Amino acid sequence: MNNYFATVARGLEEIAAQELEKIGAKNVRPDFTGVYFQGDQTLLYRVNLWSRIIFRVLVPIAEIKSYNAEQLYRNVQNIDWSEYLNPEMTLAVNCTGKNSNLNHTHFTALQIKNAIVDQQQKQFGERSNIQTDHPDLLVNAHINNNFCTISLDSSGSSLHRRGYRPAMGLAPLKETLAVALLDMAEWKPNLPFLDPLCGSGTLPIEAALKALNIAPGLSRKFGFQSWLDFDSTLWQQLITEAKNNQLTQLPQPIFGSDRDADVIELAQINAQNCGLENQIEFYQQELATIEAPTSEGVIICNPPYGQRIGNTEELGELYKLLGDIFKQRFKGWTAYVLTGNKELSKKIGLRTSRRLAVYNGSIPCTLLKYELY
């Protein structure tokens, strides 16, 4: 079994650990903004294809002493890079963390890159070209005190980039956070779902992908597909298996609405990009006129909270309206509101049955639950 490390948004470590266990990971151990786990090559491919919550899967290959630039360079050269890279392949190095001597991530990444290509030059008389965008091998280095963990990034670009969302509205919710909210709300596909402030459609689309058991990675490429040990037969088997296990019809309807006709158009484009145009009901509607489309269901919405869009005073009216509509028109439903503004949340005027802490990027937020009787 190999060791892996999944990077994840702050606060979602436990939810990501549960997801990894469901996918088949062994010895799962959450840490700050990440989860350690073990598995074979099949699991590595499967996690990249199926994870809805994590950002990247790193494959650690060495932990080396890195007191200063010279020691780091020397110890990176002690790794046999021909196992992972040949001169025809492109290369990039990303670095996080620091110590007192290596306190600039760009400089640290440069040292590692130099050590790798200098080894290639000596061994082959030629070296890999550097390509920051979609390289064949993306090396991740993390400095912690006087040690550096060197890993290969199997995901390439972040897994939250599903490939369906070139069209985005203002302040879009990350796909990974949208799925985490669905899990935190304990939404199941046998319940109707509504986002009455859906913007470019992330929450309804992620709900539909989950309900139809569509692997979130089907429409994109991964870093490991360029690796020397890439098993294309195994990968094709996993793709075929995923496609065969998809459902064709939602068990219950999924709705998304917004007052802005332009962003509803973006949402419809995004749904079309992942083959969901006939599954999700997107419609342009003012919040004030919205009615419950079914007798029961789950609402999740992410209204603006004054951090990036909207004026706080004006937003008070929006939050009050949300509370009024929930109370008057959505009896039998359960509503969840994600907000990063405590004062605004009070304007909803309903008693919360649960409050769940979560981060939206760097903004500390709360997911508020309302039982509507």
Q: Which key phrases capture this entry?
A:
7-stranded mixed β-sheet, 373 residues, alpha/beta, Rossmann fold, 2 domains, VC0802-like, 10 helices
Secondary structure elements and pairings:
Elements: E1 2-7, H1 13-23, E2 26-31, E3 34-39, H2 41-50, E4 56-65, H3 69-77, E5 91-98, H4 105-124, E6 137-144, E7 147-153, H5 175-184, E8 193-195, H6 202-211, H7 232-244, E9 254-258, H8 261-273, E10 280-284, E11 297-301, H9 312-329, E12 333-339, H10 342-346, E13 354-360, E14 363-371
Parallel strand pairs: 5-6, 8-9, 8-11, 9-10, 11-12
Antiparallel strand pairs: 1-3, 1-4, 2-3, 4-7, 6-7, 12-14, 13-14
Helix pairs in contact: 2-7, 3-4, 5-6
Tell me what the structure shows.
The protein is of the alpha/beta class and 373 residues long. It folds into two domains: 2-153, VC0802-like (2-Layer Sandwich), CATH 3.30.2130.30; 175-212 and 247-371, Vaccinia Virus protein VP39 (Rossmann fold, 3-Layer(aba) Sandwich). The protein contains ten helices and 14 strands. The protein has helices at 13-23, 41-50, 69-77, 105-124, 175-184, 202-211, 232-244, 261-273, 312-329, 342-346; strands at residues 2-7, 26-31, 34-39, 56-65, 91-98, 137-144, 147-153, 193-195, 254-258, 280-284, 297-301, 333-339, 354-360, 363-371. The strands form two sheets. The chain has a seven-stranded mixed β-sheet. It has a seven-stranded mixed β-sheet with strand order 10-9-8-11-12-14-13. The relative contact order is 0.11.
